[in-house]
Specification:
By secondary structure, the protein is an all-beta fold. It has no helices and eleven strands. It has a four-stranded antiparallel sheet with strand order 1-2-3-4, with no helix packed on it. It is globular. The two termini are about 25 Å apart.
Length: about 150
């Protein structure tokens, strides 16, 4: 859940798993909003969808963290490939308005790769902003790792 300090509204981002249709067997990132943290929340649609087969995020998109930084909204998210033998990795997307389908994935995704940590997967992450730095904490088999960025080099 992210609270917009300007409007006071709360935004909930969560994976929706699809049993049929275009994204059958895969998950999309959807969002809901409410003026109260306890709800009720109204659905606002889909923010991110899995990419085409052959890409690192062609499977399920999950575990999103949204934050505002330098006038833009950022979403870090776990995703995996539906057709490659690569586990979950972490990517970023940006938006100027939070609206569905107005999110742009970083072209250099994934930002935190399995190869960075010599592991099969990097997931269950959280993202934390402190000053001008963004910290990404993630689970890898048997450990928790941290990566720091200023978002400029990505």
């Amino acid at each position: 859940i992210w609270k917009d300090p300007t409007t006071g509204w709360f935004y909930l981002f969560a994976r929706m798993f699809h049993m049929a249709g275009t994204y059958a067997g895969r998950g999309t990132m959807n969002w809901w909003s409410s003026p109260n943290i306890t709800g009720p929340y109204s659905s606002k649609g889909t923010n991110l969808v899995p990419d085409n087969l052959g890409n690192w995020d062609s499977g399920t998109i999950s575990r999103a963290y949204v934050f505002k930084y330098g006038g833009k909204f950022y979403m870090s998210y776990d995703a995996n490939s539906q057709d490659q033998n690569v586990g979950a990795q972490i990517g970023f997307a940006t938006s100027t308005d939070l609206l569905p389908r107005n999110w742009t994935k970083y072209p250099s995704n994934p930002q935190v790769r399995t190869s960075d940590w010599d592991t099969d997967f990097v997931l269950q992450h959280c993202t934390f902003v402190e000053g001008s730095k963004v910290y990404i904490y993630a689970c890898v088999p048997g450990n928790i790792v941290m990566q720091e960025t200023d978002l400029q080099g990505w």
